[in-house]
Amino acid sequence: MATKRSVAALRPALSGLRAPQIRPPCLAQRCTASSPLRPCGVALFRHSPVRYASSEAQPEKFGKTGLYDLHASHGAKFVPFGGYQMPVQYSDLGIGESHNWTREKASLFDVGHMVQHEFSGPGAQAFLETLTPSSLSSLNEYTSTLSALLHRETGGIVDDTIITRLPGKFYVVTNAGCREKDLAYLKSELEDWGKNHPDQPVEWKVLDNQGLIALQGPLAADILSRVLDEEHAKELETLYFGQSTHATIKGTDTEVLVSRGGYTGEDGFEISIPPYATEAVTAFLLDSAKDELRLAGLGARDSLRLEAGMCLYGHDLDDTTTPVEAGLSWIIGKDRRAKGGFHGDSVILQQLKKKSEGGGVSRRRVGFIVEGAPAREGAKILDPESGEEIGVITSGCPSPTLKKNISMGYIKDGMHKSGTEVQVVVRGKKRKATVSKMPFVPSKYFRPAPGANE
């Protein structure tokens, strides 16, 4: 941990920002089968039978992230999302304007409603490789992979997730809207793992109240470098998409986890922040780049992610969808394809085979360019010749960047090739649509030059 330096030049909110005193010994204890632990500070689990302490809190009320008051002070309009009151837009920019600002400069999104987990212990890797099709054995420290939690028999997607290997543990982020379902799933899977693998214990922490923000846009790296200490600011020059680092906020001893990536298709970072520092660090970022950085809400985030061809769970992915159907076969590691050993492997590995071998899928996720009115979730896709229903739209909106109506959905296998013309029923009228490759807008992730040594 870096030594605290002078904060005289920084905004008052950061003055004196320090990690709190070590919490009571409960955080150092380990859950056991005979003594389920009720955590204080963070939820702490082991694979033995335990209770999730936070599930009883405010069952009928919407939660608030640590940035709720900051959003309100910036004129946020709130909507319920994923069990939280989340900003959909702000008074200074409309949704389309916020979208374009992100593409041209940089925006800051609050994603603190998402669930952050840590898995550690001798059995952590093997446990996660049972639930997901990812090759975690080949994942280097401080690197991440998109993955999916899978149902045992069907290979359906319980939730999509990002898994990062950190020293001695795995950092996993799941969706807020799937929180209770995911927690029940993980608890059940850990209990089963403990019964069958007593020599490979796993410890599970849910980092409740941990802040998480996404800094996205072409100016993101320059803005972030201003608030990190000199050593870590320099690291951003060679921190590539899918890589992470622990960094210290300038003038303080506050350490954050910086992961290069995001949901918009732009260069950017997701920053995990200790609860005590979330608002101060976010305000410091905003103050450091007043002419370049704005807060952005769910409205812009949705149109940005759709242009980037990114899925939204509960819309483009669900429990009945396999990674192969969803166009996510690339998350299945080469060694996993050869050996299996993950939930739903018999279904998924069969789908990966050629049709001549009995493989393939009946539907595929694709993009569409729609003429006339935008086609939104639930719109039927028709064969233009026979009128047969051949698919359904799962997401759609006007594209602020392309000035066209874009959609994503599932279509009958064989009709999924780019350029295929179909019809989409929008408000009772048949509209012409064309299957399109995704992403709709080229991604601008920061990657090493071809052939360069990372």
Automatic annotation (TrEMBL):
One of its GO terms (molecular function) is transaminase activity. It is found in: Mitochondrion. Its EC number is 2.1.2.10. The glycine cleavage system catalyzes the degradation of glycine. PANTHER family: AMINOMETHYLTRANSFERASE, AMINOMETHYLTRANSFERASE, MITOCHONDRIAL. The lineage of its organism: Eukaryota, Fungi, Dikarya, Ascomycota, Pezizomycotina. GO terms for biological process: glycine catabolic process. Its main location: mitochondrion. Residues 67-335 form the GCVT N-terminal domain. Substrate binds at residue 270. Signal peptide: none annotated. Keywords: Aminotransferase, Mitochondrion, Transferase, Transit peptide. This is Aminomethyltransferase. Belongs to the GcvT family. One of its GO terms (cellular component) is mitochondrion. It comes from Westerdykella ornata. Residues 363-441 form the Aminomethyltransferase C-terminal domain. The glycine cleavage system is composed of four proteins: P, T, L and H. It catalyses: N(6)-[(R)-S(8)-aminomethyldihydrolipoyl]-L-lysyl-[protein] + (6S)-5,6,7,8-tetrahydrofolate = N(6)-[(R)-dihydrolipoyl]-L-lysyl-[protein] + (6R)-5,10-methylene-5,6,7,8-tetrahydrofolate + NH4(+).
